[in-house]
Amino acid sequence: MSQLQDWVSKNNYQIHQDSRSFLSDGAMEMDSLKGADELSNHVSGNYMNQDFEMIEKKTRKRKKHGGYSETEQTLVLFPNSCAGISDFEVIPGILANFLNFIGHGGVIFELAENAQRSSKEMIEKFNKNYKLFPGGVIESGLNSHNVREDKCENVDDIAPLCKTDFFEFFNNKQDLIVEVQGDHLMIHQHNKSFNHSEPNEILELGHKLIQTLYSCHRDQPIRGLSLSQKAFNPKAIFGKLALVAGVMFVLMATLLISAAFVGPRVLLAFPIIILIGGSVIFKTIFKAKSDR
Fold first, then answer.
1. Which pLDDT score, from 0 to 100, does residue 171 have?
2. What is the value of pTM for the model shown?
3. Which residues contact 88 (CB under 8 A, 6 or more apart)?
4. All residues at 6 or more sequence positions from 4 whose CB lies less than 8 Å from its CB, including other chains
């Protein structure tokens, strides 16, 4: 008997062969399950009076020189556990940085100057490790670059969640990916498959998060905390960079032509053009990141 089957048997859970057919209604619409090449080891049960479904998601990518690389993740779904909670996603910084680059910066948290030091440290730690997005962006943003704009414009809907318990939950655990959509909660860790000998770890995290989400609606707001959303605009920046590169190309081409008539000394201007052009490009990118 495998570790998974042993765990299922001891806890009176159920294991399903046809994973897609037994998943709760609406689960396949969640971003976390999009792009799956295979779903397996689907387990359902009840943990601390909360229904759950655990499933293995496999994704395959073609390698440059042939063959495929495979990634396996263990996801846990808590169906109908977040009634009244606005849709949101929290993803690790390594994923958020890429989404920011393609034009979606997520929620920006700012604290007033007179805010408590402990609050500032808490927000700084969260900002360092995670990014919060209203609505779904994980698969739609990373796979197709087509983030659902209607879900990424308004931060007011998730403001009631942004309380101390919410930030502390994520600050105490690394690399979590959390999605709430249509009353369902999905939780997993980035590119990690859980050891079936100790699967209660992720179940406990999910149970604690559900309690945290509901308690946040009752808690007092963090003093001096404001939310906004201003994303990096790649189209505008790339347009400026293309213009600078075009001007540099014309100047260098002119120097090459001039060198044939005037002499090679004209080429001494090459480093100056590269230095000035590089400086303009650096300042353009730096300003774009500063204005997010």
1. 95
2. 0.72
3. 132, 133, 134, 135, 158, 161, 178, 179, 180
4. 15, 41, 43, 196
